[in-house]
Design brief:
Layout (H helix, E strand, L loop, with lengths): L1 E9 L11 E6 L2 E10 L2 E11 L2 H21 L4 E2 L13 E2 L6 H10 L7 E4 L2 E7 L7 E4 L23 H15 L3 H13 L10 H12 L14 H16 L6 H12 L10 H18 L8 H30 L1
Parallel strand pairs: 7-9
Antiparallel strand pairs: 1-4, 1-5, 1-8, 2-3, 3-4, 6-8
Helix pairs in contact: 3-4, 3-9, 4-8, 4-9, 7-8
């Protein structure tokens, strides 16, 4: 028989009114059950669903269940973590393997924990996986590993220094602080870009010549000059034309991406980031940011783990660039 098993940690200080294993629903002969394990402050939720006669059915129904688990928890505002690690709270990946115990390791574990001596031990996988067993999944004991990495570092040098009070600078540091705390690489990355965006002027216009062209072209957009055979009233035509003129006129303004690059250019950094000059590196970061914001995707065609590693590298260098920009802004632009 095939069984679906979904395992995740719950964040945000949440716990549930579940003490014993409970049945959530039944789908044909397959039963879906849930139990909650508590270890100190860690809350782990374990959902099992099965058994299914074949792997195809288990995969299909398991994917549906996994999607709906994430959906319902998200709607309730309860964050779930399927990786067990900081910085990758949520990805499109369905499972993570946090190492694993060898057969020798299982033998030693049974020696050290007597009540496991007669148990059949299986390595636990976070997220969703499908298992094939010759007996009910409840007859197996899953062994999960919880690895928490803690980095010991020097305490920051704190001094009383005069500073120029500036709302934009305070907002940028606030966003950067949030980006370091948030447990999702994508959201953290977007917040880091936003830290630079918060420093630029609200309105900034392109060159005088460019604006002159826009103004002249805009003056030519009139009902008399645009001959379109559409059966609508003159009032409706004029309304459409005014909307077009308004949108076209906004082309005189610099985009926020242009304003960010202009700010970085003013910093005139000689150092490189990810092996590139500051502008080239920020351009790449802004493309990634735009993909997230506008399409919800990032580098299609590679695995989720490759995306995570790549984004972690970009995020580290972006953080360095932002700190350099903030220091330049505080010393030279306020």
């Amino acid at each position: 028989m095939h069984y679906v098993r979904i395992v995740f940690f719950v964040g945000g200080g949440y716990d549930f009114d579940i003490n014993d294993e409970q049945t959530l629903f039944q789908f044909g002969d397959a039963v879906c059950k849930v139990k909650v394990k508590r270890n100190n402050e860690e809350i782990k939720v374990i959902i099992t669903f099965g058994g299914f006669e074949d792997r195809e059915s288990a995969d299909r129904e398991g994917n549906k269940l996994f999607y709906n688990v994430k959906k319902q928890f998200t709607k309730k505002g309860i964050p779930i973590n399927i990786s067990g690690g900081l910085g990758v709270l949520d990805t499109n990946q369905k499972s993570f393997i946090n190492g694993g115990i060898t057969e020798y390791g299982f033998k030693e574990l049974k020696k050290s924990i007597p009540h496991l001596a007669n148990e059949t031990l299986v390595n636990e996988i976070l997220g969703m996986d499908v298992y094939q067993f010759d007996k009910d999944i409840s007859q197996f004991t899953f062994v999960g590993q919880s690895v928490k990495v803690q980095l010991k570092t020097e305490f920051p040098l704190i001094e009383i220094e005069d500073y120029k009070q500036d709302t934009k600078l305070e907002t940028a540091y606030s966003l950067l602080n949030s980006s370091n705390a948030i447990n999702d690489l994508r959201a953290s990355f977007i917040l880091k870009v936003s830290a630079i965006e918060s420093l630029v002027p609200e309105e900034s216009y392109k060159s005088e010549n460019y604006c002159a062209f826009i103004k002249q072209i805009n003056n030519l957009i009139t009902k008399e000059n645009i001959k379109i055979n559409i059966d609508i009233s003159d009032t409706e035509k004029q309304k459409i034309i005014q909307n077009i003129k308004s949108s076209f006129g906004s082309l005189k303004k610099k985009s926020i991406g242009e304003k960010c690059k202009e700010l970085i250019e003013r910093c005139n950094f000689e150092k490189t980031y990810f092996g590139k000059n500051a502008i080239s590196f920020f351009n790449e970061c802004y493309i990634i940011r735009s993909e997230f914001v506008h399409t919800g995707t990032y580098i299609n065609g590679i695995s989720e783990m490759e995306k995570i590693r790549e984004l972690e590298n970009y995020k580290t260098e972006l953080n360095r660039l932002i700190i350099d920009v903030l220091e330049f802004y505080e010393k030279n632009l306020i």
